[in-house]
């Protein structure tokens, strides 16, 4: 490292942070955070009251870190911006056809639509780029007076020293890889709010800490997750079926491994294709990235991409625990909203409508509190609105789908969850609520129980390797900064994970961040290529020792997704 450009600050205390005061601080400019911001300002205008709202976003711009399918249920958008169609929301492609296939190695079976519970229908839903929708929501929020700061991760929770959250601090800039301050060091800002809403999406780094700090999950089942990998393709015009939504399950995953694919046709010859692997898988040799590549070679899938061009790649974890895994949502001074709390409807593969609704409810609760002169207490009415409103009505009927899949495998689990969803369509009290059991970090079995999987080599036309995929994600981090993937004990990967699980981080990471390499004496060494990280959070979830902590890197680092 260049000593001239670095201040060897030794143990000196960092300078005091400057503080900015707001009524409401929001962490994360996804659907949940932006909806909360918009609703606060709408209410402020209705009541002729001035309410200051700030949104922090770790991506270099709004949407840069958003990755979703996405077929959206417009219920959230209808509630937030009833005139969204006339106001030019990038939500134009209505679903025209809905297909569900069960894949076998060389054949497929189409499931009849009438067998599907009505709640699974995509009639009236829209195919969108969620990244573009958040960009549009951000414009709306700014027009209403919301301050949005992209490139500013919230790195620290600020408390009053007792039990209330008073805001967050943005990350410091200009710290070298060795942890020392460089000459360009800039201290992060403290943002204080009467209430702070955490809208970080699945496995938010501060949300995870809040759940621990306030024991928010003591009365619920463990949260469950999946990793979703996605590519965006520009396909040949004759292969494009605007409005077609297709989902598959089965091959290439075995019956014990949950997951499946999505393929959505929209826009200008665009096809969003993705593959989700449930993170409760057992085989440490499983490699979600290569499963996705292999899936595209199926005869029912590959023709769509003939003559097409891949233009985007990325990955992101999604929550799968559903109703029984929702933690307590509030704590003194703030609340969890969106997928940071986990409002994803797993069988419908939809979470954005509930993220928007939760943002609206939290905003309404915070606005009432501010109007009556409160601050720093619990927004209890928000929790009630979630538990007794449309989010509950969406999630309760499907609450057993995930546990049934986990217990009985894909085939029998799908049949049973279909029956359960039909029963729950009649009344949610007809079946008991099933438990999830283990957290995803505890489901791997020893590598000795399995044989390594020999994945086919990529052809560079339909299937690709990780480096060329990463190039399309646009991911980028300043190299001279502390590694943001923090190991609690640096010895665990080689000492514990390698002999027992063949160090699965080498495979579950969709960006090739983790490698086991040989040092100069031929001994294995765990290498972290942090600059490749696409912020999917899978390592933080799946590491069997829970030894990897995903923390926010320097501002603006991470993927630069366009239209994902
Ligand atoms: C592969 C995949 C497919 C999906 N398909 C669908 C679908 O078809 N339909 C559907 O409705 N839903 C779908 N979902 C789910 C949907 O994407 C989520 O429900 C939705 O994005 C949740 O919104 P959110 O605002 O809670 O979080 P996110 O959309 O994850 O947004 C969180 C934002 O907060 C930012 N952030 C996080 N931490 C910090 C921090 N500490 N400081 C500053 N900023 C931070 C992030 O950069 C991001 O911009 C899918 C998800 C995945 C992964
Ligand atoms: S390092 Fe972790 S968060 Fe980053 S891409 Fe890999 S698994 Fe995802």
Binned strand content: 15-25%
Low-confidence stretches: 1-10
Overall pLDDT, averaged? 95
Number of helices: 13
The set of bound ligands, ions and cofactors reads: flavin-adenine dinucleotide, iron/sulfur cluster
For the record, give the distance between the C-alpha atoms at the N and C termini, rounded to a whole number.
36 Å
Count of DSSP strands: 24
Shape: globular
Question: What structural class is derived from the secondary structure elements?
Answer: alpha+beta
Largest beta-sheet characterization: 8 strands, mixed
Radius of gyration: 23 Å
Helix content: 25-40%
Describe the structure in your own words.
The structure is a single chain. The chain is α+β, with helices and mostly antiparallel strands and 564 residues long. Helices cover 25% and strands 23% of the residues. The protein has 13 helices and 24 strands. The strands form six sheets. Strands 1, 2, 8, 9, 10, 13, 19 and 20 form an eight-stranded mixed sheet that branches. It has a seven-stranded mixed sheet with strand order 6-5-15-16-17-14-18. Helix 1 runs parallel beside helix 3. The longest helix is centred in the last third of the chain and has 26 residues. The protein is globular, with a radius of gyration of 23 Å. The protein starts with 18 loop residues before the first strand and ends in a 14-residue tail after the last strand. 52% of the residues are buried. The N terminus is likely disordered. The chain binds flavin-adenine dinucleotide and iron/sulfur cluster.
């Amino acid at each position: 490292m260049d000593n001239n450009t670095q201040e060897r600050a030794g143990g000196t205390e960092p300078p005091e942070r400057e503080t900015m005061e707001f009524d409401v601080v929001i962490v994360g400019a996804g659907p949940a955070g932006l909806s909360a911001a918009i609703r606060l300002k709408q209410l402020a205008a209705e009541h002729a009251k001035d309410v200051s709202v700030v949104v922090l976003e770790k991506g270099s711009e709004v949407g840069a870190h958003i990755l979703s399918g996405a077929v959206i249920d417009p219920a959230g958008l209808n509630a937030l911006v009833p005139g969204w169609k006339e106001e030019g929301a990038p939500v134009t492609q209505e679903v025209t056809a809905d297909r569900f296939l069960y894949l076998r190695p060389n054949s497929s079976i189409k499931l009849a639509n009438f067998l599907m519970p009505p709640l699974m229908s995509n009639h009236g839903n829209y195919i969108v780029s969620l990244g573009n929708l958040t960009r549009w929501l951000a414009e709306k929020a700014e027009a209403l007076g919301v301050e949005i700061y992209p490139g500013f991760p919230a790195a620290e929770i600020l408390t009053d020293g007792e039990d209330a959250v008073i805001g967050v601090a943005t990350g410091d800039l200009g710290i070298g890889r060795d942890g020392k301050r460089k000459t360009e060091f800039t201290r992060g800002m403290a943002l204080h709010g009467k209430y702070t809403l955490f809208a970080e999406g699945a496995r938010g780094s501060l949300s995870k800490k809040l759940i621990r700090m306030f024991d928010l999950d003591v009365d619920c089942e463990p949260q469950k997750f999946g990793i979703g990998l996605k590519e965006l393709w520009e396909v040949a015009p004759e292969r494009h079926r605007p409005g077609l939504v297709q989902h598959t399950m089965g091959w290439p995953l075995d019956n014990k491994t949950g997951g499946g694919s999505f393929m959505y046709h929209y826009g200008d010859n665009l096809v969003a294709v993705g593959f989700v692997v449930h993170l409760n898988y057992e085989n440490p040799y499983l490699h979600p990235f290569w499963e996705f590549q292999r899936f595209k070679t199926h005869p029912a899938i590959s023709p769509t991409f003939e003559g097409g061009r891949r233009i985007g790649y990325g990955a992101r974890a999604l929550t799968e625990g559903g109703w029984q895994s929702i933690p307590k949502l509030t704590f003194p001074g703030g609340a969890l909203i969106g997928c940071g709390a986990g409002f994803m409807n797993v069988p419908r593969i939809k979470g954005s409508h509930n993220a928007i609704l939760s943002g609206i409810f939290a905003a309404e609760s915070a606005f009432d509190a501010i109007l009556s002169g409160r601050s720093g207490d619990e927004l209890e009415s928000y929790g009630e609105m979630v538990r007794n409103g449309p989010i509950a009505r969406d999630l309760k009927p499907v609450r057993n789908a995930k546990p049934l899949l986990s217990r009985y495998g894909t085939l029998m689990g799908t049949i049973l969850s279909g029956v359960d969803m039909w029963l729950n369509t009649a009344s949610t009290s007809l079946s008991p609520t099933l438990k999830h059991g283990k957290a995803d970090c505890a489901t791997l079995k020893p590598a000795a129980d399995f044989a390594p999987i020999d994945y086919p080599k990529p052809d560079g036309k339909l299937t690709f390797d990780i480096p060329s995929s990463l190039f399309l994600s646009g991911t980028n981090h300043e190299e001279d900064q502390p590694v943001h993937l923090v190991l609690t004990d640096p010895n665990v990967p080689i000492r514990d994970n390698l002999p027992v699980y063949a160090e699965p981080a080498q495979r579950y990471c969709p960006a090739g961040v983790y490698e086991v390499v040989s040092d100069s004496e031929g001994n294995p060494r765990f290498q972290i290529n942090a600059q490749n990280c696409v912020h999917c959070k899978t390592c933080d979830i799946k590491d069997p020792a829970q030894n990897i902590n995903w923390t926010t890197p320097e501002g603006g680092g991470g993927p630069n997704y366009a239209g994902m």
